[in-house]
Design goal:
Layout lengths: L4 E5 H14 L4 E5 L1 H6 L2 H7 L5 E4 L2 H9 L6 E3 L6 H9 L3 E2 L4 H7 L11 E4 L14 H10 L7 E4 L11 H17 L3 E4 L1 H6 L7 E2 L25 E13 L4 E2 L5 E2 L4 E6 L16 E4 L2 E6 L7 E4 L11 E5 L6 H8 L3 H6 L6 E5 L2
Keywords: Isomerase, Pyridoxal phosphate
InterPro entries: Ala_racemase, Ala_racemase/Decarboxylase_C, Ala_racemase_C, Ala_racemase_N, Ala_racemase_pyridoxalP-BS, PLP-binding_barrel
Organism: Methylophaga thalassica
């Protein structure tokens, strides 16, 4: 097998989708598959999640690629588009760019698309202050879009929680209240809940939920793991030992000599590095699992390799599997803590050098 390898479990992915339906049984599901399905391989993931009611991506190019690969479900473009040509392309491919700027409303009022856009969403700035039209301006924007002739009458309101991973934060309730008020005024369906809200705020599920991270078996909460929510990790990242050697006391490892042997030590080298997306922030911080035993990552992460302290795992040999994350022994949430980041970053930055091996799909 090529290594390093990210093994993608389709059965785990479908299990996690079923968990979404368990938590939000009355809501439709817009599965978020942006950024190459969070690094898991978007085409395989889209095929596995075809029970979704819609997909969401970030950019027009992602949506067009899905259409080119035969995906027929509604596809929402969360960042929207900003030129007449891009709106025309969205219409041609039957895509749904989110409207979040008054300038987009102005543009759609001044052009004629080859066919009206369908499955239309307006982003409401309910409190995150990133993308969106303010609540008090929504009804005006909606009226203008309806008379433009470039959108059919299928509209929904979308927003995004800024703090849903902070359970009990009053700001979440404020955002929900904005959306409930608009739902009452307009009678339109609402899509607000991301993964954290699906798990922690059932009152926010409403008409649509928009899960991302939980689909891939990762907890959106810093203090919990996926297993606590009944989720299964979809990605297992592994590689192989390519070398082992002995160090004497006082000898140093890697660039800058950032790790020094305090006793005679056994060292292993594994084939993965920052060129594969394995973060340099894990230098002298992370652990791996070899033959069921945890071993520290030592020295600086190199472009292509990492060094591992095998002193307490002397049975390890060249060719042994090295688990970097993705099983109960070593979850990606823990590795993210070592790196001082979030699991989203670790899985999405894996490079194309990392082989994706799709199982049971």
């Amino acid at each position: 097998m090529t290594f390093p390898t990210a093994t993608i479990s389709i059965s785990a992915l479908q299990h996690n989708f079923a968990r979404v339906k368990h938590y939000a049984p009355k809501s439709k599901v817009m599965s978020v598959i942006k950024a190459d399905a969070y690094g898991h391989g978007v085409i395989a993931v889209a095929e596995a999640l075809k029970q979704s009611d819609a997909f969401a991506v970030a950019r027009l190019s992602e949506a067009v690629s899905l259409r080119d690969h035969g995906v027929t479900l509604p596809i929402v473009i969360l960042e929207g588009v900003n030129t007449a040509d891009d709106f025309q392309l969205a219409a041609e491919f039957n895509l749904s760019p989110v409207i979040h700027l008054s300038s987009q409303v102005d543009l759609l009022s001044s052009i004629t698309l080859i066919q009206p856009l369908r499955f239309n969403w307006i982003m409401v700035d309910s409190g995150m202050h990133r993308l969106g039209i303010r609540p008090e301006d929504i009804e005006t924007a909606l009226s203008r879009l309806k008379v433009s002739g470039n959108m059919n009458d299928e509209f929904g309101l979308m927003s995004h929680f800024a703090n849903s991973d902070l359970v009990g934060d009053i700001r979440n309730q404020h955002q929900l209240e904005h959306m409930l008020s608009l739902k009452e005024k307009t009678g339109l369906p609402v899509c607000l809940s991301n993964s954290a809200a699906v798990l922690a705020y059932p009152e926010s599920h409403l008409d649509w939920v928009r899960p991302g991270l939980m689909l891939y078996g990762i907890s959106p909460f810093a203090e919990t793991t996926s297993a606590e929510h009944g989720l299964l990790p979809v990605m297992q990242l592994t590689t192989r030992l390519i070398s082992t050697y002995d160090l004497n006391t006082g000898e140093q490892v890697g660039y800058g000599g950032d790790w020094t042997a305090k006793q005679p030590s056994r060292i292993g080298v594994a084939s993965i590095g920052y060129g594969d997306g394995y973060s340099r922030h894990l230098s002298n911080q992370s652990e791996v699992v070899i033959q069921g035993q945890r071993c520290p990552v030592i020295g600086r992460i190199s472009m292509d390799t990492i060094c591992i302290n095998l002193t307490d795992c002397i049975q390890a040999n060249v060719g042994d599997e090295v688990l970097l994350w993705g099983r109960s022994e070593l979850m990606v949430e823990e590795i993210a803590n070592y790196a001082g980041t979030i699991p989203y970053e670790l899985v999405t930055v894996l490079s194309k050098r990392v082989n994706r091996d799709v199982k049971d799909g």
